[in-house]
Design goal:
Layout (H helix, E strand, L loop, with lengths): L4 E12 L4 E8 L10 E5 L10 E11 L2 E9 L3 H7 L6 E8 L13 E6 L3 H14 L3 E7 L8 H10 L4 E5 L6 E2 L2 H10 L6 E5 L2 H14 L2 E5 L15 E3 L5 E3 H4 L2 E3 L10
Helix pairs in contact: 2-3, 4-5
Length: about 270
């Protein structure tokens, strides 16, 4: 278990990824490690405005000389994310991380994994893809979005998939790039064609995750879902992000997840 810390960091890079999404890379002199699927609680302003930190999946961690770079991808949806988008290099932030439990990146006998991302669900999936690529582990990467303009970091995703001989599959709801329709339908087509995966790892909006959970149940495919539940504290205290499990228990996704085996979740996730 990697111990969480409240880190004082500085913005190193902030770049736009799409009309609504951006990348922010922060630097700290402290050694820092995380696994794909873990997240950070970011203080988006000074004082009490905004009052609560915001939860963002970690998209990558790299050592750069005497500092550690931590990458986040953010969709601008409100006051907190808007503040982050306006930050200039050198601005100070507080980062509580790493939090939660991540994806399982091992596969028996070199079996292939299916990595599935929808929209701003890309960060933990891309983090996993680059870790798998570095280890030479095979996977296919399915990247979906509403439109071509909202497909994030396609070139980087393609490089990760190509590094292990995998396929990058793009899908857009409106058909403006890649296959037309939902990204889960693209995965279903590969399964229909005889493609076999040991496990699917996924992050995206809840409708996408529910569709993937149904597909996994119907095809007897193991799947791990990174849930995007609203989080107030990130450490299991406020209980604002509880999810129901198949055994009826309600657990905080920030502490028990955010990555869950699809089979552990309540039936409504795969109904």
């Amino acid at each position: 278990m990697i111990a969480r810390r409240d880190l004082a960091v500085r913005v190193a890079v902030r770049t736009d990824l799409s009309p609504t999404c951006f990348r922010i890379v922060v630097a700290t002199p402290e050694p820092f490690a995380a696994v794909p699927g873990q997240f950070a609680m970011v203080a988006c302003g000074e004082g009490l405005d905004p009052l609560l930190r915001r939860a963002y999946s970690i998209a990558g961690v790299a050592r750069d000389g005497e500092r550690t770079l931590v990458e986040l991808m953010v969709k601008e949806v409100g006051r907190g994310s808007s503040r982050l988008r306006r930050l200039a290099p050198g601005a100070e932030l507080k980062l509580l991380a790493p939090l939660g439990n991540g994806f399982t990146l091992t596969a028996a006998g070199g079996a292939r994994l299916a990595l599935v991302a929808g929209g701003i669900g890309l960060p933990p999936v891309l983090f996993a893809a680059e870790r798998l690529a570095a280890a030479g582990a095979p996977f296919d990467l399915f990247l979906g979005a509403a439109t071509a303009a909202e497909l994030l970091d396609v070139e980087r995703a393609a490089a990760a998939a190509a590094a292990c001989g995998g396929e990058l599959v793009l899908a857009t709801d409106d058909g403006s790039r890649g296959e037309a329709g939902f990204v889960t339908a693209a995965l279903a087509r590969r399964l229909d064609e005889g493609r076999r995966y040991e496990r699917a790892l996924a992050c995206g909006p809840n409708p996408m995750l529910r569709a993937l959970a149904r597909l996994a149940r119907e095809r007897s495919l193991a799947a791990e879902l990174s849930l995007e539940e609203p989080m107030g504290c990130g450490v299991g205290v406020c209980l604002g992000c509880v999810v129901e499990l198949a055994d009826g228990r309600l657990v905080p996704s920030c502490k028990e997840g955010p990555v869950f085996e699809a089979s552990r979740l309540a039936a409504r996730w795969s109904a």
